């Protein structure tokens, strides 16, 4: 078992007590949904280490990324523009660029010989900033419902599955994935305790930046059915890899559209702050 992974779970449990004390039930729920999705996918990915079912991976990533893109567009972008259109737009741009930079730096850190696991570092580079932003958003607008947060962390399941599959295939312990699994809660709960001043420009930056980061994460998880990518790596073990990738591209479009449509319908059914 990974010491870092187990330690992260212990810290998350401790922070959960703080969240209960502070009445941060929505943030607490989102944190544990993220953890359950990624940690629960570890045994599934481990058992599938030798599997070649690329379609399952495409649908997992597609549903999650479609849901995330739609959630950011429906819940965060309008808030940012509503507070201050220009500042909110700048925040969206900054969020996309910072999200990309964090991803690149996380990948770089995994190759500098610092003893970090490549998979855990890259997933943590997504989870920790995302959790901090979720905490800020729900702290600034506590009336937001759970649909936004649950949609944002929906990629944790397929990401944990793919990571566990990769680690198990390389004879490494997938328990290190417990770090990014707990990562959302590790940063969301503390930042939710921060009270932002009611300044429209500041709120525009926060919500715009949040939208940009989540849009970057969602686009990063779009199921790209190309040679050399994660889906292509799974498909490459089959004799008809190129034909399979062509078929999977259709599944990628359908799955992302389905994820987006599910969130849109839920948004119509329960209201703008669902």
Overall description:
The structure is a single chain. With 274 residues, the protein is mainly alpha-helical. 78% of the residues lie in helices and 0% in strands. It is globular.
Global shape: globular
Q: Beta-strand percentage?
A: under 5%
What's the rounded overall pLDDT mean?
86
| pLDDT < 50 stretches | none
Task: Compute the CA-based radius of gyration.
Answer: 18 Å
Oligomeric organization of the protein chains: single chain
Number of distinct helices: 11
Count of strand segments: 0
Helix content: over 70%
Distance between the termini: 38 Å
Structural class: mainly alpha
Element pattern in H and E: HHHHHHHHHHH
Largest sheet: none
Structure keywords:
mainly alpha; single chain; globular; 274 residues; 11 helices
